[in-house]
Amino acid sequence: xxxxFGASCVYAAPSVYGETDGNATLAAIVIALGTLPMVLVxxxxxxxxxxxxxxxxxxxxxxxxxxxKWVKSISSSTPMEIxxxxxxxxxxxxxxxxxxLKPLKTKFLRIANFELKNAPPARSxxxxxxxxxxxxxxxxxxxxxELETAVKRSRAPGVWKVVKEHIKAQSIRST
Length: 175
Fold this sequence. Notes:
three-stranded antiparallel β-sheet, transmembrane helix, alpha+beta, membrane, transmembrane, 2 domains, 6 strands, 175 residues
């Protein structure tokens, strides 16, 4: 997407400026339209989670049975590292406690299915986008897919299902 913006600045805008006998307004419109794909992709794909890492204690790492036993009695203060992908392709890692996540109900045009409980409110949609994209604040909402292939590729299949149920159960208890 950044290539579209670069091409609109380097190739399209100068050619429009030259063909319209120096009309800077049209050249600026071409540059603004070149930013549109980058802004849309950045906004729409921000909540998609690339990976989630839960850090069990050393005893739980010794066998699958020990891991599943630990996960079934997981603490709400257990940290998780949630990795999302930014607009440019770099990874963005946020570390949150399990107790700080709550499930979101499915709504029309809502992408996310989890949300931070203590996310600071943004003043406007633009402020929210700038904060999510450029500043080091945690992403306020996340989308974790339910694909069976992703679960099978996991190092410990079945752990995310139990953690997700724990998040839903603690959300019901706290309301």
